[in-house]
Amino acid sequence: MEITIKTHPPEINGIMQLVEATKIFPYLTFVGEKSWQSFDGYYCAYRDQSFAGVLAVNRIGGWVKLGPLAVLPEHQGYSIATKLIQQAVSSEKDNIYLASANPSVWKIAQRLGFQESFTWANLPLAVRMIYFKMSIRVLLCGESLHFIKEVLRKQRIANVHGHQHFVYSGVQYNSRSCIINTC
Ligand SMILES: CC(C)(COP(=O)(O)OP(=O)(O)OC[C@H]1O[C@@H](n2cnc3c(N)ncnc32)[C@H](O)[C@@H]1OP(=O)(O)O)[C@@H](O)C(=O)NCCC(=O)NCCS
Q: Ligand 1 in contact with 155 (CB < 6 A)?
């Protein structure tokens, strides 16, 4: 099995697969077709040459926010999300912030050396500005109504608002065997 990561936006076919799959993802509320094309940067994963998932990034003022993050259901459990985040951590030059309501992402982040650092109340200004920029883009893409509808639907099935906020602290564990052997 070969996993490769490329720094280009997902192709339209991959985006359509992500939008379809997101309907059943409890924690990722909604990212529309146009929004998926509106982010500042991308890490795209391929498993044996098939599109498998993407980590989008957004940057402002010395900070980069990782996410949205999605791995297609048939490619989950192969450490693809872990590799996407690892790649971003080694490529991005700014302070790295990641937030998620998905406990699987919390585990991955903690294992990679992220520290839980903030709450919604005390986020750095630059991170707040990234959220603002992302919201404006959803509006400009004409996808905000669909987004709100999906938040209302999904908050009945999962704690979509229960985010943990992480900052990368520089301690990185590189491989599954290293973690299992606690080396
Ligand atoms: C959450 C998500 C991105 C994880 O993708 P993935 O590629 O399956 O993730 P990984 O394979 O890297 O990790 C999956 C599991 O393997 C474990 N794992 C991964 N790498 C590991 C390693 N090196 N050592 C030990 N365990 C590892 C993870 O802890 C996780 O465990 P869990 O099943 O108990 O949660 C994916 O499930 C997804 O796209 N979900 C829907 C969208 C979503 O919720 N996105 C996040 C919203 S902010």
A: no
CA within 13 Å, CB half, 37: 12
Of 57-71, 141-155, 163-177, the one with minimum mean pLDDT is 163-177
User: What band does 169 get if pLDDT is binned at 50, 70 and 90?
Assistant: confident
Ligand 1 pocket residue status of 67, Cβ below 6 Å: yes
| Domains parsed from the chain with CATH numbers | 3-180 (3.40.630.30)
What is residue 179's predicted lDDT score, i.e. its pLDDT? 35
Q: Which of 82, 150, 183 to mutate to test the pocket of ligand 1 (most atoms within 8 A of CB)?
A: 82
CA 177 from centroid of its chain's CA atoms = 24
